Amino acid sequence: MYSSEFCAVLARHPALKDFTSRVTDFLDKHLPEPLTEEAARPPWLGLRKSAAQAGLTGFDLACATVGPGNGRGPAGARDADVVVPPGLERVAQGMAMFLAGRRDCDAREIFSSGHGAMALRYGAPAVAQAVLDGVVNRGELAGVASSEPHSGSDLRGLRTVAVDHGDHLLLSGTKGLVSRVEEAVGFVVFCKVLRPEEAAGMDSDGAALREVPLSALWLPMDSVGVLVESAAPLGLRGWSLGRLHFDAVRVGKDRLLGAPGDGRRIFDAHFSGWRLMMAMVCLGAATASIEETMARTRRRSVGRMSLADIPSVACRLGTAAAEVQAATAWCFSLLERIEKDGEDIDVAACSAAKALATDTSYRAVDIALQLHGSDGYTRHTPMEKRLRDIRGLRIADGPNDTLYSVLAHSLLAATRPSPSLVAQRQA
User: Fold this and answer.
1) What local confidence, expressed as pLDDT, does residue 180 receive?
2) Closest listed residue to residue 161, CA positions, set 145, 172, 151
3) Which of 66, 358, 363, 409 is found 20 to 30 A from 305 (Cα to Cα)?
4) Whole-angstrom distance, CA of residue 170 vs CA of residue 185
5) How far, in Å, CA of 102 to CA of 82, rounded?
6) Distance between start and end Cα atoms, the chain
């Protein structure tokens, strides 16, 4: 039994029913049950490659969003490609993430082009074609490197620098804890592009760098001078985590995404959608947790009373279900708006929706774990793994406190010409 909001989206977009069936069939074959920590870890990268063979890694890309000259022609198309109706690519991606989250939060990397979408949308033809061949057609993995140890998610405070030497860039700096450091074949790196004389005149504290606009580039992981430092995460253990160190890495200028200084535009356009994807993963996990707990409360009893008939139990489950439904509805409505509005994205609303969804999901799983009793706190049920995984996604792509603040600052500054916070339905 899926979230009623998920079903409502299908009712609004019946053309996606075949797509969701394809995703569900894939998961039923490869991940038939929600994962527990005591179960053997699936071959996640292998599952992504299987998804590529099933045509489930490029459905989020409209031909128009693939960079100039990089449309999927005969060389890039495959008979197994899943076709999503134009204008529903983001909604379809959200559905895939929701369904993946029902099985496990680490399944989030199986479907779609992921962070490779930035290289496909903004990269030069050769870069976009290489990412299309690898990330979409062969099921390889792309990563993103934005945050840094000293500044976290403060994009203006980034100190990773690409010095422009005419025909090439020299990339130097360190990126904070990022995912996929061992599996990704390449990373979208956010940095500051400087002329040599500008780089020589920069202060050691990087204060002047705050005024330099952000840029983005595609960096293959086999580039000379890229060093990986791995770390052990609390949750989300299906994929590696660590720091990336760049020691004067030579990068061709054709690997820039967009023009120098386009980084913030690229970041906002991509991460507004991506944050909603991570929200959908967590909401899928939360929905599965609520459903599993409802089934358990029907089976269990306290004395002569079913656990489900105890008012406090029913109240807690109902509260969790209501919050998850509301967050799911908001996230899907934002995905539909992104499809409609193009790059005129409400960054603040997408940021806050991700924060709300992950906080709501964490509370729902916590309640589910509690109502499973001592079993919930073991590796025998999926609850403790979900709790750790969702906790990590409350930090990833911007910590929730910061994301709520983005919405508050937007409302206080009135940066978008919008109606009142709560609009009345017109007769």
Assistant:
1) 96
2) 172
3) 363
4) 20
5) 21
6) 34
Ramachandran quadrant class, 143 (left: phi over 0; alpha: psi -120 to 50; beta: rest): beta
Rounded-to-integer distance, Cα 386 and Cα 380, Å: 12
Residues 406, 348: contact at Cβ < 8 Å? Answer: yes
Q: What is the DSSP letter of 304?
A: T
Output 69 or 254, whichever has higher pLDDT: 254
DSSP H/E element including 12: helix 4-12
Q: Pull the structure tokens for residue 336.
A: 């539909």
Centroid of chain to Cα 408? 22
Question: Tokens 């609850």 appear where?
Answer: 383
Supply 42's token pair: 């699936």
DSSP 171: E
Distance CA 287, CA 102 (A): 7
Give which of 101, 108, 98, 133 is closest to 16, Cα–Cα: 98
Whether the model clears a pTM of 0.90, i.e. scores above it, the answer is yes
Overall size of the chain counted in residues: 427
Please state which of the ranges 132-146, 330-344, 352-366 shows the lowest mean pLDDT: 330-344
Q: Are 189 and 204 in contact (CB under 8 A)?
A: no
